[in-house]
Every structure is written in C-alpha cells, then in structure tokens.
DNA sequence: ATCAAAAAATTAACACTGTTAATATTTTTA
DNA sequence: TAAAAATATTAACAGTGTTAATTTTTTGAT
C-alpha cells in the first residue's frame, strides 16, 4: 500500500514536471507552438514519454486550463469579503477583465479554445466542467443577493448571470482576438484599447445600476 | 490593355476557384482540417499552385472572412427599413445571433480567430478592417438614433455600441466554444442551449429598455 | 545477490501540416 | 517559329501529433 502510494506520488511528480515545462513553453510562445517534442526536450525525455502521463495534447491543455482556474478562483475568493453584492458584482467583473488582460494566453485556454473543452466529454474521469461551474455559481449567488437589494427585479437570475458573463467575456475575447484593436483604431480613433474596454465595462455597469428598483 | 484585363480576370477566376474549394472543405471539416494540400487536390492542382494566388493560408482565411461579412452585411441591409431605432437594434442583435448559430464556422473565422486578423497588419493592400468597420458603424448609427429617442441617455455612443456588440458576441462565442453548453448542462439543468442564449439576450434587451428616459 | 516480472522510456515510423527553391511545362509575344 | 514570360510542378525542408515495437530500468521474490 505504502509502496503504491509512493509510486503514484512519483507518477504525479512527473506529471507536474511535464506540466511545468508545458506551461513555460505555453506562456513563452503560445499553445500551438508548445509542441509535445519541445516539452519533451525541455525536461530531457523523449516525446513519447509524454504520452505515458497525458493521453494527448488536449489533456495537457485541460491541465493548464485547470491551473488557470485555480488562479482565477483565488482572485475571486478575496472578493467574498465585499459585503455589498452590487459592489462585489462590479469587483468580479473588474477582476475577470484584469485576469484576461494580464494572462491572455491562459484566458484563451480557459474560455475561448475548444481543445481543453473536448477533453471533458471525451475523457473518462470528470464528466462536468467543475471549474467553470464553481466560478459561475459565485456569479449566480452574487446576482441573487443583488436581486434582494432591488437590482434586476423580474429578471431570471441564470439569464442575468449568463448575460453578465457574456458581456465581460465578449469584451475580453474581442480584445484578445485583436478585433477590438482594429475597430478602435479605425472607427473610434482610440489607440488605448484597454481604456476602450474599461469604458465599455463602466457603461455596462451604469446600465445595470439603472435596473434598480427605486420606488420603495 | 485589353489583354492585361483578360489576364487579370482569369487570375481572379482561378482565385475564386481556389476559394470555393477552400470554402467547401472549410464548411465541411473546419479551418484546421482544410489544408492547402486538400484544397489543391479538390481542384486538381499541385499544392504549390495555391501560393501563386494566395500569399499563405491566412490569406485564404481572410478571403473567407470577407465572404462571411458579405453575407452578414446583406442580412443587416434588410434592417435599414426598420424605422424605430430600438426595434432595429434588437433586430441587429437577433440577426447577428442567428448568423452565428447558423454559420458557426464562418462566425469563428470572422470574430474569434486571430489568423485572418493577422493578415491585416501584415499585408500590403488594406490597412484597416473595412468589413468590421462598416458593420460596427451601422450599430453606432442605430444607437445614436436610439439615444435621440431617450435611450442610453448620458452614455457614450461608442462605449454603448462596443458593449452591445460584446454582449451578443460573448453569448455567440461561448456557444461556439461549447462553454455555454457545459455550464448549461451542469449549473442550469438546461440542455437547450440555444434557448439559454436567447433568454440571456432577451434579459439584456430588457435591461436596455430600462435605460429609457421616461420622465418627459 | 540473482533473476524473472513489471514498469518506464526509447527508437522508428506513420500520416500529416505549411511553405519554399529549383525545375519543368505551357502560354504569350515578337 | 524562336525567345520570353507566365504558370505549374516536383522535391524537399522543417515541422506537427501520435502509435507500435523495442529496449532499458526498476522492482519484488527467491
């Protein structure tokens, strides 16, 4: 038993070594360029060794995706102390956007790419998107509390949460895909696209504020 | 002169033949799988011939991206007849979403992938994203008219337009990347993710309606 | 300590990918 | 008809993910 534990622990260590090498190459040159062969060379093993620990490349992508969610969840966890739910909702949005701008590669892996998602329905282990579920439920919970304070009255909580997520994700995703930059340069004569993004977010928050039931 | 015209016209014909083959393979098996070699085989030429007409694969991607915008612009053009600007705004959103759901591959090429966008700053010809600019300006124009009718008072038009775009794009993008499906199954116990998307859109529209200045 | 069994890692290979240089073919022009 | 220009091809480079077969290493029992 003890021996088996040690064995599986060593196996986990190797998995982590591979993942760290993968992460290094991933943040340096992007997902596509972080090839199995490069990862193997980084830690001094043959390419096929990788397959002894990870099913395929999307398996590694999913593991990195999970690491990204660990970071995002940590960032969010410090927001539970924000008592006012609407302030918390705004903070969630700002934190989400900051994360996307600071770690665009990770954001892409977590919320844009299909590859890590394919791993979910294909693989045996986990059947649901646990990471996403947790983050989304924090948003739902916050919106529920907002509703109790008079915001979003008469609106479905799930739909409101989904819509709020879509708005910030849309902004981040357009930023990362450089579509925002292209429109910013030409149509809005505004080079600072981060500012553009932030202003759009503030406009959205302003709209949300107007849903507040004030006649009471 | 006439001869040169004919020559360049023939060249355009070949370009179109290549593009049609590329489009066929693209809609059938996706962008990644639509390889240069397959495109060449489809029209019975050698792979290198493709490079005599298109600089690289992202050049083809951009051409398809442009074709997609031609369709989207046609869809939008029939909305200019909608006189009420807020009704038109809603119609723009619905049309955009329908397009994304009906042609997810094209949507990905037009609004998600970086590849066709890279073509813009790299290549010589066009320096700006003309397609995107036109569609965005239609949105800006409509929102300006909405503002004159009392909507979005005190909000920046550009920011409002960007935010509206981001919201529908976010929904479409989460749908296409299957993230919406994964959250829908687990958190919202709702399999019909198209309905989920539509409901979120309606919730957003409801929020927009609440920005209307009624005390007059 | 030795030797067989199990585990781990490796080499070689398959079937692809985008892309380019050098070469051959076809078409056009004089 | 011959030279020039345009067009297309073959061969090759440098990669990619992935698998089967083989070798090396480690482990556990005698």
Automatic annotation (TrEMBL), chains A, B:
Residues 12-72 form the HTH tetR-type domain. Residues 35-54 bind DNA. PROSITE patterns: HTH_TETR_2. It holds the Pfam family TetR_C_33. InterPro entries: Homeodomain-like_sf, HTH-type_TetR-like_transc_reg, HTH_TetR, MT1864/Rv1816-like_C, Tet_transcr_reg_TetR-rel_C_sf. GO terms for molecular function: DNA-binding transcription factor activity; transcription cis-regulatory region binding. Keywords: DNA-binding, Transcription, Transcription regulation. This is TetR/AcrR family transcriptional regulator. It comes from Taishania pollutisoli.
